Amino acid sequence: METTGNTGSTGAPTDGGLFRFPATEPAPGAVHLPGHLGPAEQRELLDACRGWARPPAGLRTVRMPRGGEMSVRQVCLGWHWYPYGYARTVVDGDGAPVKPFPRWLGEWARRAVEAAYGEPCDVRYDVALVNFYGAGARMGMHRDEDERTDAPVVSFSLGDACVFRFGTTEGRGRPWRDVELRSGDAFVFGGPSRLAHHGVPRTLPGTAPPESGLRGRLNVTVRAL
Ligand SMILES: O=C(O)CCC(=O)C(=O)O
Ligand SMILES: [Fe+2]
After folding, report:
1. Binding site residue list
2. In sequence order, what are the beta bridge partners of 82?
3. How far apart are CA 106 and CA 124, in angstroms?
4. Closest among 45, 69, 74 to 57, alpha carbons compared
5. Is residue 8 included in any domain, yes or no?
6. Residue range 26-72, pLDDT digits in tens
7. I need a surface site. Which of 69, 71, 83, 112 has the fewest CB within 10 A?
8. What confidence tens digit (pLDDT) does each residue in 109-135 have?
9. Which positions does UniProt annotate for Fe cation binding (predicted)?
């Protein structure tokens, strides 16, 4: 397990969050940016997620083609992702038009890519998946492969910390690197890691910043179709 980040073993900030740890690159093109979002941005994103979660086209349980259900609940922006494709309406839910992808979220994603790679980013991001992890929720190893572009994926984390498992492009199994993602962290994966397998084997309940009032974990994954 990576121990980047400014927290003790309980996950509680020991320095009020003033000290930011440097970026790490667990695989080529995969960059972890601890504390990328400051407290005000985390609040802004959390407030936005609370709005996006409301119906119509709100938070839903995703059913898999073979009959299982994802333990993570999800809402999409810009384009609606379902297993396995994208649509303009919630084809596997209430049928409502998907909520718009906000321009500012694209700017945030480009800023994270620039921070990760140290070069300008002009990607037109147009879709976000908002994943809510309640107690016990997890996400199995998978690839984000329903997009037509090779633009880097940008993920923002809020609330409880989690173990984010980052593997290879070849298969779901080892080798992998486990990275702890905490509230405010960004994770960018592009280039040779764009199609790497990744997942969330567990969250760390009770580690959300208390002032967020959030019980559980939120992840906002931004992509270009
Ligand atoms: O929750 C996360 O950090 C990862 C989410 C993810 O991999 C996805 O939505 O495809
Ligand atoms: Fe993913």
Report:
1. 142, 144, 198
2. 85
3. 7
4. 74
5. no
6. 999 999 999 999 999 999 999 999 999 999 999 999 999 899 999 99
7. 69
8. 999 999 999 999 999 999 999 999 999
9. 142, 144, 198
Pocket of ligand 1 (CB under 6 A): 129, 131, 139, 144, 155, 164, 198, 200, 219, 221
Give the residue from 51, 24, 15 showing the smallest Cα distance to 130. Answer: 51
The CATH number assigned to the domain holding 211 equals 2.60.120.590
Which tens digit of pLDDT belongs to each residue from 188-207?
Answer: 999 999 999 999 999 999 99
Residue 19 placed within a domain: no
Nearest ligand 1 atom to the CA of 74 is 9
In which band, very low, low, confident or very high, does the pLDDT at 8 lie, cut at 50, 70 and 90? very low
Domain that holds residue 146: 24-223
Q: Does 161 reside within a domain?
A: yes
Going from the Cα of 185 to the center of ligand 1, the distance in angstroms, rounded, reads 13
Residue carrying the six token digits 């839903």: 60
Q: Is 18 a member of any domain?
A: no
Sole residue written with tokens 């280039």: 191
Count the domains in the chain.
Answer: 1
CA of 155, closest atom in ligand 1: 3
What ipTM was reported for this prediction? 0.99
